[in-house]
Structure formats: C-alpha cells, structure tokens
Amino acid sequence: MKDFNNIPRTYINQLAKANKVVYSGKEDKEVIDGLKEKKQLDKLVYLNEQFKYTSSNMTLCKPESNFPDKAKTPELFLSSLINEKHIKKENINNEWEPILSPAIKICALKHDGSSVYLKLVVEKFYKRRKSYGTVFDSYASFTSAVIHFDQDGSNEGIIQVRCSTTDLKKYTEYIMNLMGFAKPYSWHTVPKLTKENAKELCNILSAGVASRHIAIPSTVGSVRFNGKKGINLAVDKTFDSINQAIQGLGLPTDHTMDETCFFTYTDDKTNINVEAKFEVNIQTGYFKFTKSVPEFVFDHVLDALVKVNNGSISYQVAATIEKSS
After folding, report:
1. Is the omega angle on the peptide bond into residue 252 within 30 degrees of 0, that is, cis?
2. Is the peptide bond between 191 and the residue preceding it cis, with omega within 30 degrees of 0?
C-alpha cells in the first residue's frame, strides 16, 4: 500500500466501485490488490501522482525580478539543486523520506515540461499524555510548491506555493533562496480576487455558492448565510427573499466579505468525480480549497483564473495548463 499512500481512500473506493471490486469492510491493501487484478495499476499510479503534491491552499507568487541565471530553465535549476546537494540525481521524479528536522527539506520532486513540482517536509512537534505526565512527539508536516518557468524567453516566472497564509513568507523565501534570488526577497501575489472576478471565476467553473458572508453597516456588523448541502445560494429563492427583507430595512446586502463555492469535476482518465469546495476572501483576495484536491482540479481552477484575469497571470502558467489538459 505504501506505493499508493497519497491517494485518499474515498477515491480508491470510487475506482473500486467502477471496476466492480469489493471495498466495503476491506483493508486498503485488499482493495488495492483487487484493483491490480482488474488491471487498474496504471490508474493507481496516475492517481497517486495526482495527489503527491496536493494541498488545500494555492497562492501564486510573482517575483519582482527575473529568475536568476541558475534558474532560467527547469534543467538549470535541477542541476543547481544536485550540485548544492539539496537532492541527488536519482531523486528527480521520485519521492523519498529524508531525516526529519525543523529545517525545510525536499522529499519529492517532479520535472514536468516547463514546471518543477516540489514536495517539502518539516518536523513538527506536539505534546501528548503518557502515564502520569506528558511527552513531546514529532510528525512529518508536508507542503508543496510548483515553479512555472517561462517558455517565451522573457525569463519571468510564477511560483505556486501551496501552504497557509501564515507560512507563505517562509516557504516562498525558501524556494527563492533555492533558485538563487538575492536578499531581501521581493515578490507579490497574483491575481487580486475582487467581488467581480470572483463571481466570474464561479461562472467559469459552474460553481454554486454554499456560503456567503456579507457586511451590514449597522449594529449587527455582518451576517453569514450557509446553504444546505447541494443548495446554490446564488439562485435560491429563500436566500433572495431574505436579502430583499434586509434591503427593506434600508440596509445594503452587496458587500460580500467572503464566500464558499462548490463544483464537481470529473477526471477524463479515471472517471473519478471530485466534489471540490473553495473559499474566496474578497477582503484579502485569498483563495483556498476546504480540503486537499488532486492535481487535475488545481489545473482546472488555474485555467479558470487565467481566463478571469485575461491571461495576465502570465504566459507560462497558461501554457502549462494547456499542456496538461
């Protein structure tokens, strides 16, 4: 099972159901073995790769200067990582388990066309009870990033960092250091999600609104509406009636602070259905999924973001999406 431990059980079960493999009450290994017997090994390998660099977060970071000489191309960057002993040559397109420490380390790497995928690991600690006292224990905490190199000779690129906003600075600067950027590291996030383009993003993804948080200029301050499972608040008559009632009090309801949207995406290679839900914070322009999603969902959303921003996210991101679709 170790070879496929990146795949959430939900999607293993979907694949098993589609291939008439019994999965209810079975251990992971039993289901995997059943899928192998049904000649589904290639799909297992594919899905494991799809979830290897997964996350619930996605922030696009644009360096203020061009990529340094040692990171002009994926090949040059990988050579520098080998020369500086961050990785070994055999690590490329593989996953491994480095000795854990609080320092960030690379634990998986993939070169795919004009992009390099990095899986990063740090050791984190937690306190647990033991006998009459407490002890500290540790675990591996993973983060992923994708470096999109330019394909048009402009030597510009995008660093896609898949971590929380709390750790964004730490991981972005770690990657910029690997790439040879000079201190102080200077970068900004793209795109800025406004209320208008957040709505357009939902339209492109055919996404419904599961939750909406609106500011009310009154003593109430704000109100959050949560729809029942599967209900799209954007077209719900009850939600519309409540909005009209609030407006009847002379209060506006068009100041959206944040909202949660949902859509279903079907992977054409496996016919796996992914029910994706994402949060858009209009005030900060921040985007995140509510749980980890596979690579093909990241690609689907990035494609939509490129369209929302009229291609201004940059050529190489659009080219990467076109290549992977």
Report:
1. no
2. yes
pTM of the model: 0.84
Residue range 51-106, pLDDT digits in tens? 999 899 988 899 999 999 999 999 999 999 999 999 999 999 999 999 999 999 99
Taking the CA atoms of residue 230, residue 235, residue 238 and residue 239 in that order, the dihedral angle to the nearest 10 degrees is: 90
Same domain, 145 and 239: no
Beta carbons of 311 and 318 less than 8 angstroms apart: yes
Tokens of 263: 């859509």
Residues 168 and 264: beta-carbon distance below 8 Å: no
Give the DSSP H/E element, type plus range, for residue 245.
helix 237-248
Of 50, 67, 85, the domain-final residue = 50
- The answer to whether position 101 is within a domain reads yes
Q: Do residues 273 and 280 lie in contact, with contact meaning Cβ atoms separated by under 8 Å?
A: no
**184 and 200, same domain (yes or no):** no
Q: Which residues contact residue 250 at a Cβ distance below 8 angstroms, ignoring those fewer than 6 apart? A: none
What are the backbone angles phi and psi of residue 140, rounded to the nearest 5°?
-85, 125
Q: Let me know if residue 315 belongs to a domain.
A: no
Distances (CA, A) of 255 to 133, 193, 207, 223: 51, 14, 20, 11
